[in-house]
Each structure stands twice: as structure tokens, then as C-alpha cells.
Write a structure and sequence with these properties.
Elements: H1 2-35, H2 46-57, H3 69-92, H4 97-123, H5 130-137, H6 142-152, H7 158-183, H8 188-211, H9 215-223, H10 231-250, H11 254-268, H12 274-299, H13 303-306, H14 309-330, H15 334-349, H16 354-365, H17 371-396, H18 405-409
Length: about 425
């Protein structure tokens, strides 16, 4: 009996500690929204502030909070929403087909260069697999760039079109390729076949969602749009969960299912009424779950390794490699944009954090990258979102560019 009471007491203590940690994570999430805009002329990327606050309250600094079962579950849900919104962005931005094709070709150059450099670093004794480094170095944070470019007036210009094409490719292709590399169950050929089958299922689902519109179902969706029913939001989250489950059952990483769900929901919501549903989903994702993921990343961040001479050196190396790998793809725009515009696209394209955090987290769980190397890679990505967009904007000079007529005439997918 006494042993049972001791066990219950210990369990209660663990529960209290996890709830306290969760409350602190939520406090850090709320604080990040204000601290990111603490000055009238200084706006920091919120994701960077969230990670820094997570580090501050985590075991390596103040030791106020730690990642427990509750936080881990919500953080994984937040990661799924992160890739879900990446899929939504691909559809929402209406990037011209030509820009996407050129961005995809540029990404092929980046991934080839990134994997070569990654395997050279692996052969040199770095504790990370070459393919993982290659994928991480070839990502672009489109969600981070869009508001920055919009505020600077660059989004409707030729530079904006180039960055959108580069960013869509830098989000879509790393997710697809990473899903194949991280599976490692069936063999490369079988995995590619399964990926095509999964893509066929996703396309079929999208076709049904766009074509099959029973009047009563459509009426319910509209009637609950501004009520407690929120049927459209619930269906969107159901699709997210279903495709995540399907991806895991097939053997892929769940992020592929989340991304596919975002693409499908984005297609369905691509209308004026859909904007309301998107705002509801953004409230759940960016208001709750995604910030928990990034604060939790800070809780488990290997700060001690980053602050060593080796850690700082690796971070500087990765920062340079991000620019080299993604900057190479910008050369495809040299003819239209000239040297300065091309350099601006290179710096914009080298801005990468959310996908890098996700890739490092998944790779660490799979034993594909050491924690100290992952910390340096995330550190470099954090610096990239703080510095590279500022350099890119200064080099572009929005007043020098006219609105992009190509973007307005080729906006259809």
C-alpha cells in the first residue's frame, strides 16, 4: 500500500512538473510575439525569438522547464502544422508556373551541390550524414520571406517572382526527397514507387474535394463558417490527421502527409470564402501549436556545443554554405535581374530556419546527425533569417523595380 502511495506521489510530481513546463512554454510563446516587435523599426523573426526563449527557460540556462510528454505531443502536432502551412503557401501564393519550373531546376543544382559538400564533410569526420546536410542546406524559408518582401515592396517585382519560385521549390522538394531518404525500409526503387502511389492518392483526394460538392455539404460548411460548428476547419484537420497516418503506415515520414494535406486544403480554400477558414487554421497553428514546437526546440537545444570554438566555427561554415548552395540556383535569374538582383535572390534564397530545425530534429532522432553538429546548423539558420534578408533587401532597392507583369499574367497554376 505504501509503495502504491509513493508511486502515485511520484507520478503526481511528474505531472505537476510537466504542467508547469507547459505553462512556461506557453508563456514564452506569448512573450515571443511581443519581443519580436519590441521596437518600432526593428522586427525580429518570431521563430528565432521563440527558440531563444526556449533555450533561456530550458535545462542549459535557467532550468525552469524541460520537454515532457505533454510538450512533446503538442510539439509534434505543431511540426505537422508547420508542414501543413508550407503546403498551403505553395498554393496560396499563385506563383507563375515558369518561376516554379526555374526554381525547381535551380533547386536541383542546389541539392546536387549540397550533397557533394555534405558527403565531403562526412568524409572529413563531421558527425552527420551527407544526404541530410545536403537537404538542409538546400532549403528556403518562404514563410519567413513573404512578409519581409511584402513590407519592402519587392513582392510584386521580378525579384519577388524569382524568390517565390525559389522558395516554393526550396520547401516542396526537400520535403519529398527527405521523406524518401528517411524511410530506408523498402529500398530506393520501392520507396519512389510508394511515393508516386501516395502522390496519386493525394491528387485523387484533391480532385474529389474540388469536384464533389454535394449541395447540402456545401451549405453546412457555409452555415458553420461563423458559428461554433466550424465544419470546414474540422474537415481540414481531419484530412491532416488522415494523410499523416497514411504516410506513416506506408513508411514515410509524417511530414509528407502533412505537406500533402496543406496542398489539398490550399486548393479547396483558393476562393474568397476560403480565406476565413485559413484564418481559423492560422489561429490554431501559429497561435498555439507551431510556437510550442519552436520553443520546445529551444528546450532541447545543445547550447554548450554551439558556444565552443568548434561549434561557432561550424556555424560560420554552415552559414557560408547556405549562401553558396542556394546562391548557386539564383544564377538562373542573372539574365533578367542582373548582378545586383541575382545577388539579392541568392541572399533571400539562403534564408532557412523552420525546415532546417525540422530536418535536424528528425535526423537526430534517426541518428543521422550528432547533436553538436545539429546545434551549429540550427545556429547558422537562425543567423541567416536575421541577416540575409536585410542584406538582400538593401541590395535590391525596391524603388528600382517595376511591378512584375509576368507574375500578374501567369498567376494560374
Amino acid at each position: 500500500m505504501s509503495a502504491l502511495l509513493v508511486g502515485d506521489s511520484a507520478q503526481a510530481a511528474v505531472t505537476v512538473h510537466e504542467l508547469r513546463s507547459l505553462a512556461l512554454v506557453l508563456a514564452a510563446s506569448a512573450a515571443a510575439a511581443f519581443l519580436a516587435r519590441i521596437g518600432p523599426h526593428l522586427v525580429l523573426p518570431t521563430v528565432v525569438v521563440e527558440i531563444v526563449l526556449g533555450i533561456a527557460i530550458g535545462p542549459e540556462v535557467l532550468a525552469w522547464a524541460s520537454e515532457g510528454t505533454y510538450i512533446q505531443f503538442l510539439a509534434n502536432f505543431g511540426l505537422a502544422f508547420l508542414f501543413f502551412f508550407a503546403g498551403l503557401e505553395v498554393v496560396e501564393k499563385h506563383v507563375p508556373r515558369q518561376a516554379i519550373m526555374r526554381g525547381s531546376f535551380g533547386w536541383a543544382i542546389s541539392i546536387a551541390l549540397g550533397i557533394v559538400l555534405g558527403y565531403l564533410l562526412q568524409l572529413a569526420g563531421l558527425g552527420a550524414e551527407g544526404w541530410l546536410l545536403g537537404i538542409a542546406l538546400s532549403t528556403t524559408s518562404l514563410g519567413t520571406l513573404v512578409p519581409i518582401m511584402s513590407d519592402s515592396g519587392l513582392l510584386p517585382t521580378p525579384i519577388g517572382t524569382a524568390v517565390l519560385g525559389t522558395g516554393v521549390a526550396g520547401e516542396f522538394w526537400p520535403i519529398a526527397v527527405m521523406s524518401v531518404f528517411l524511410t530506408g525500409i523498402y529500398g530506393a526503387v520501392a520507396e519512389i514507387v510508394l511515393l508516386l502511389v501516395f502522390g496519386g492518392i493525394a491528387i485523387g483526394t484533391a480532385f474529389l474535394a474540388l469536384r464533389a460538392r454535394p449541395p447540402r455539404i456545401v451549405a453546412i460548411l457555409r452555415e458553420t463558417l461563423h458559428s461554433t460548428g466550424q465544419a470546414a476547419v474540422r474537415l481540414s484537420i481531419l484530412l491532416l490527421a488522415a494523410l499523416v497516418l497514411l504516410a506513416r503506415d506506408v513508411g514515410f515520414e509524417f511530414i509528407l502527409g502533412a505537406f500533402a494535406a496543406g496542398l489539398i486544403v490550399g486548393l479547396v480554400l483558393d476562393n474568397p470564402e476560403g480565406r476565413v477558414v485559413r484564418m481559423r487554421l492560422e489561429g490554431i497553428g501559429f497561435g498555439l501549436l507551431i510556437p510550442i514546437y519552436f520553443v520546445a526546440t529551444g528546450l532541447t537545444f545543445d547550447l554548450d556545443s554551439l558556444l565552443t570554438a568548434r561549434g561557432v566555427g561550424l556555424a560560420a561554415l554552415f552559414l557560408a554554405l547556405l549562401l553558396l548552395v542556394r546562391g548557386a540556383s539564383a544564377l538562373l535569374w542573372l539574365r533578367e535581374l542582373g548582378p545586383r538582383g541575382t545577388a539579392s535572390v541568392a541572399f533571400f534564397g539562403a534564408t532557412a530556419l523552420p525546415l532546417v530545425v525540422a530536418i535536424v530534429g528528425i535526423g537526430t532522432d534517426r541518428g543521422a546527425i550528432d547533436s553538436d553538429v545539429g546545434a551549429s546548423l540550427i545556429g547558422a539558420a537562425m543567423v541567416s533569417v536575421l541577416v540575409y534578408p536585410l542584406i538582400a533587401t538593401a541590395m535590391a532597392g525596391a524603388e528600382e523595380w517595376e511591378p512584375d507583369t509576368v507574375a500578374s499574367t501567369e498567376a494560374e497554376y
